[in-house]
Amino acid sequence: MPELPEVETIARGLDRRFGGCRIAGCRYASPHLLKAAGRADLRRLRGCRLLGVRRRGKYLIFDLERGTRLVFHLKMTGQFLECASGRERDRHTHLVLSFGRGRELRFRDVRKFGRLRLVRGDERSALPAGLGPEPLALGRRRFLELLGARRGRLKSLLLNQRFLAGIGNIYADEILFEAGLDPLRPASGLDEARALRLWSGMRRILSRAVRRGGSSIRDYADAEGRLGRFQFEHKVYGRAGAPCARCGAAVRRLVVGGRSTHFCPRCQK
DNA sequence: ATTCGGACCTGAAAGC
DNA sequence: TGCTTTCAGGTCCGAA
């Protein structure tokens, strides 16, 4: 479900609502979410202060006292929900952090793909080696350098987390439309003008999506239950057969690298 | 090195 | 009204 703009929105909301709060208890870690050893370690969290919450790629990082960190990946359907402790817990709730005075933060995940790791010290041990840089912190020169070393199709490259961390299926399609580039075009041999269009298109799409609080297509909502608004600005994603907003040609859908891909055959070359 | 298909899960929507 | 199939904001693994 969540890509960079959604995870960023969740992180900001959690940081604002729970940053500085003390964890009173932790319950219900399901085996899917966390291995047995990690579940035992969760006991250490009691009484620990949550210093802050931030994002790296599509990962959510909870920084705690005593050099401990919780690193979540939400995969397709993971979500956080702030609620009153008395409220009924449904069968998709896999972790509950209590903050006292009846305040709880629950992790729900219908498809159970989401993962949590509890680490001491640096979060890097919980992240994949070779995770790419943050797209919005990447200068144009560095972007051109990284791009020059890559092959394969543009769509697959944008989805590759070792190239850039945080772009997923929605934003890959929207970025390529913004840049006017065919998702099937090979990454190698992209001339500088097109490469710079890709860089600036990426920045425009991602930063606007963050400002809109991400895209709510199916079930994404932030920790305060608010829906994103960027879905109203999608130009191609989920619009197969509909007219292109720019030229009127029918938006096409095909499968690239096993992922559904949407593009305008006239605007994207 | 890249690409492909399948696996991991559940449920909503579309198709018949 | 069913029942079946397809599809989904992600990633990992093994085989071609």
Q: Major sheet: order of its strands?
A: 1-6-7-5
Task: Encode the helix/strand succession as letters.
Answer: HEHEEEEEEEHHHHEE
Poorly predicted regions are: none
- Give the overall pLDDT as a whole number: 95
Number of strands: 10
Q: Could you give a short account of the major beta sheet?
A: 4 strands, antiparallel
| Shape descriptor | elongated
Task: Provide the β-strand percentage band.
Answer: 15-25%
- Put simply, the count of helices is 6
Q: Would you tell me the structural class of the helices and strands?
A: alpha+beta
Q: Please estimate the helix content.
A: 10-25%
Radius of gyration: 20 Å
Distance between the termini: 28 Å
Describe this structure in words.
A four-stranded antiparallel beta sheet has the order 1-6-7-5, with no helix packed on it. Strands 2-3-4-8 form a four-stranded antiparallel beta sheet, covered by helices on one side. The protein has a two-stranded antiparallel ribbon with strand order 9-10. It is an alpha+beta fold. Helices cover 25% and strands 22% of the residues. It has six helices and ten strands; from the N terminus they run H-E-H-E-E-E-E-E-E-E-H-H-H-H-E-E. Helix 1 (4-18) packs parallel to helix 6 (192-211), helix 3 packs across helix 6 (192-211) and helix 5 (169-179) crosses helix 6. The mean pLDDT is 95. It binds a DNA duplex (16 and 16 nucleotides) through helix 5.
